[in-house]
Amino acid sequence: MSVAEAAGLAIPVRRRRLSIHFRPSRLVLNVVLVLVAIFWLVPTISLTVISFRPEGLFGISGWWTVLTAPSQLTIQNYETLLSTGFATGGILDSLVTTAAITVPATILVTVLSSLAAYSLVFGRWRGRTAVFLVIVALLVVPVQVALIPVAQLYDAFGNLTGLKLFGSLPGVIIFHVAFGLPFGVFLMRNFYTGIPKDLLEAGRIDGAGEWTLFRRVVMPLGLPAAASLAIFQFIWVWNDLLVGLVFLGGNPHHTLTIFLFSQTRTLAANYWVISTGAMISIIVPLAIFFSFQRYFVRGVLAGAVK
Amino acid sequence: MAAQARRRSLVLRRIVATPAPDPGAPNLEAAVLPETGRAPGGGWRRHLGSLAFLTPAGIWLLVIVGYPLIGTIRDSFYNNDSTKLVGLGNYKTLFSTADILVTFRNNVIWVIVFPFLVTFLGLLFAVLTERVRWATAFKTIIFMPIAFSATASALVWNSIMSIDPHVGMLNASIETVDDWFNAPGLYPVNASAGQTVASLAATGLRPGPGATLESTATVAPGQTLKLGMIGISPATLQLVGAEKAVVPPAASGAVSGVVWRDFSPSHPAVRGVVFPDEDGIAGLHLSLLSSNGSSVASTVTDAHGAFSFSSLSTGSYRVEVVANNFASGFTGIYWLSGTQSLTPTSGLSQTAQALLSVPLVDLSMITAYLWIWAGFAMVIIGAGLAALNREVLEAARIDGATEWQTFRRVTMPMLAPVLIVVLVTMIINVLKIFDIIVNMAPSVSQANTLAVAMYDFGYASSPSANGLASAIAVILFILVVPVIYINLRRIR
Fold first, then answer.
1. pLDDT above 70 (res A14)
2. Whole-number percent of chain B with pLDDT over 70
3. Cα(A232)–Cα(A238) distance, rounded to whole angstroms?
4. Tens-place pLDDT, residues A263-275
5. Tens of pLDDT, residues A142-172
6. How many CB pairs lie under 8 A apart between chains A and B?
7. Prediction pTM value
8. I need a labelling partner for B469 at 20 to 30 A (CA). Which of A196, B258, B349, B476 fits?
9. Of A94, A42, A49, whose CA–CA distance to A263 is shortest?
C-alpha cells in the first residue's frame, strides 16, 4: 500500500487522471453489485423460507409474504420429515448413505492420489512423464464412457465371487474413486513438484525408506494440497446424482440427490418434502464450503480442467 | 492479502502457464542415481518402492476407466444386447432419429450459449469487484451455489420459475408489474379451466358483446331489476366483503336493482328468488346502456349487491356487467415448458423442427446453471487478474490509455489463456450435463441432452439398449478428444 502511495506521489499526473477519467462512479458500481448479490442470494433464501413455511400455505401465498407475516414460520416440516427417523429410503437414511459413500471415496482418492503423485515426482523409474500424460488425458473423460462396462464388470465379479458390487455402496465408491483419481493425481503432482528434492535426498542419505520419506516429509508438506483435494472431492461426490442413480440401482438406500430426484418424479410432488430435503442435503457441503473456503478455492483453481 | 494473491497466482500459473515437467529432469536424476544407489537399501529396491506407490491408483484407473473405455467403444458397434456386430448401425440410428437429433440440438444450444455467458459473467464480476471494499463478501455470495448439488439447485429454480404466481417468484414479479397496466377484476374468469363469462349468467342476464353480461329485459326509470349470477365461489365473495343480498326499493327517475349469487344452499335448485342465505355480488362494475347500446351512466354495486342509476330521462335501458369485472390479469408464463419454442417453427418439417426449435426450458435451465457456475468463472478469472503483470498495466495508463483501452488492449490479451481455460472447462461441463435436466425439465420434453438420452437408453428403458447408449458415450468421448489434445499440449 505504501508503495502504491509512493508511486502515486511520484507521478501526480497519473493520480489526477485516475480520478477524472477512469474511476466509474463508486455509488453506481456498489448499487449494481448489491443488486447482483441480492439476486444471487434470493434462490437460497427462498429455499430456506419455503422449508420453514407450513405445507398448507404452498401455492396459496408466495414465500415472500414472510416479510410481512413472519409468524407463519414453523419447524413443522423438519419435524415431520425427521419423525420417520432412519427408516430405509427416508431423508436421514439418505444422509447416512451419502456420507457412507462420500467419506471413504474422499479418503481413498486423497491417499491414493498422494501416493501416486509421490511416485511420479520423486520416483526414479522411466516413463513417469508418459504415465502423467495419460493421467492428464483421463482428466476430462466423461463418466458416461464407463457406466455400462463397469456395471457389466460388477455383475461378472458378483457371479464369480458372490460379492455384490452392482447396487451396493462399495460399487458406487469404487467408481467415484476411479473418476476422482486423475484430478487428484494431477493436483497432488503439481504441488509436489514444488517441494525441493534436496529435502528427500537428505533423508535418503540418512537411510530413510520411501514410505518413511512419504510419511514424514512429503505428506506433511503436501497437507494443504491434500486438504484442497479432499474438500473438492467430498463436495463432488456428495452432490453426484448420476453415478449413484446407476450403481445404486435397485438398492433401497438412496443418496440425498436420489431422494430429491425421486420426489420430483412422483406424480404429486410434495414441495415441502423437496425443499426441506434439499435444505438438509446442502447443510453439510455448505458447512464445509464456509469452513474451508480457502482450500476449496485453491482446489477449484487447480482443477479448472475437470 | 498480497501473499494470498501471490499464492493464487502461483496456483494459477500452474494450470494456465503449465507446470512444464522439465524434460531434462529425468536424465539429471539418472545421472545422480548411481551415487544415491550406494545408500543402504539400494537403488533397485527404491525403484520398486516408489513404483509400488503408483500401483493402486494405476490398477484402479486401468480397471474402472481404461478397460471400460475400450469396452464402450466395442459395445457401440454391437446390437443392444451385445450379441451381434452391427458396425456403424447404432450411429446411423442415432443420427436419423428425430428424438435423438433433438438431444444433439440441445447439447449444441448448451455448448454455444452457456460457456460464453458464464465466462462473460465471471469476467464482469471479477473486474467489477477489483476495486470494491466488500469484494470478498460479494465473491462468497456468488461462489456459494457451487457447494449445492445441481439437483438441489434445480429444485430451487423449479419453484422460482413455477407457472403459479403464488409459488413462482418470477411470475409473481411479472404479475405485479402487469397489474399496474392490466388490473384483474374482482371476479376473474378462469379461462384455462374452461370457464366462460356467459356461464355466469343465471337470472335476468344474458351474454352481451365482448366478455360482458347484460340484462335480458329492458327497463324504464322507476323499475327494479334482479340479476342473478352463479359460478362465483363463496370464498371470493367473502374476500371482497359481500353481505346478504338486499333488493333496493324502486325510486322514481332511477333504475335500481340487485346483483346476487343466485344459489341458495337451502334451495339449491331454485333460481330467480333472493333467499336470505344468498349474498349480494359486491364491487361489481355496471354500466347503463341506452336503447342505441351506448353507455350513459356507470356505478358499482354495494356490499349487498344493490345498485342504482338515478336522475335518468325516460326511455328504455339495459344494465350491463362490464368486461373488466372478469379480467383474469396475468396468469403466468410456463418457463419450464419443454415444448414451447422460442424460435418460430410452424410450417417446418418434423426434422427441421427438431433441429431448429429452442425450448423455453433450455433458457430457464441455462439461467439456473449460470447461477451455479458464475462464481467458479469469477474466481478463476479473478485469480488470473490478480496474477497479471501490474507494471504493464501501469505503463499503459501512464502512456495515456483510457480505462477501456487498457482493458481491451492490455488486460484482455494477457487474460486470454485464463478465459480459454474457463470456456473449455465449461464446454466439457455442459457436454455431459445431466442433473439439471432431469430435475428441471418436464419428464416428457424436448429438452433432453446426450447424457440424459444415454441414461434413458442404458438404464431407464427396459430392456436396456446398450448399443445405442454406448454409441452416445463414444460420441461424448470423441467430443472431448480435442480438449484432451489441448490439455496435453499445455502440459508438454
1. no
2. 90
3. 10
4. 877 655 678 888 8
5. 999 999 999 999 999 999 998 889 999 999 9
6. 333
7. 0.79
8. B349
9. A94
Nearest CA in chain A to B18: A190
Q: Which of B75, B160, B480 lies nearest to residue A140, judging by beta carbons? A: B480
Q: Where are the alpha helices (DSSP H) in B62-129?
A: 67-75, 89-96, 98-128
Residue A2 in domain: no
Rounded Cα gap, residues A188 and A226, in angstroms: 7
Question: Which tens digit of pLDDT belongs to each residue from B49-68?
Answer: 778 899 999 999 999 999 99
CATH classification of the domain holding A96 = 1.10.3720.10
- Does the beta carbon of A31 lie under 8 angstroms from any beta carbon of chain B? no
The band of A9, judged by pLDDT with boundaries at 50, 70 and 90, is very low
Same domain for A37 and A69, yes or no, is yes
Mean of pLDDT values over B330-357: 76
Mean pLDDT across chain A, nearest whole number?
85
Q: Which amino acid is at B298?
A: S
Query: Do A58 and A194 reside in the same domain of the chain?
Result: no
- How far apart, in whole angstroms, are the C-alpha atoms of residue B320 and residue A194? 86
Is the preceding peptide bond at B442 cis, omega within 30 degrees of 0?
no
- A164 and A262, same domain (yes or no): yes
What ipTM describes this predicted complex?
Answer: 0.86
What is the spatial distance between Cα A95 and Cα A82, in angstroms, rounded to a whole number? 11
- Is A10 within a domain? no
Q: How is B308-330 classified by DSSP, letter by letter?
A: EE-SPPSS-BEEEE-GGGG----
Sheet with B285-289, edge to edge strand ranges: B205-207, B213-215, B318-321, B285-289, B295-300
Considering the domain architecture, whether residues A143 and A229 belong to the same structural domain is answered as yes
pLDDT of residue A269: 63
Q: Give CA–CA dist B365/B441, Å, rounded.
A: 8
The answer to whether A215 touches A222, Cβ cutoff 8 Å, is no
For the cut 70, the answer to whether the pLDDT of residue B9 exceeds it is no
E-only strand ranges, B277-357: 285-289, 295-300, 306-309, 318-321
Angle between helices B42-61 and A128-138 (to 10 degrees): 20
**Is A235 at the interface with chain B, CB within 8 A?**
yes
Of A43, A74, A105, which residue constitutes the final position of a domain? A74
SS3 B213: strand
Domain extent, residue A60, equals: 24-74
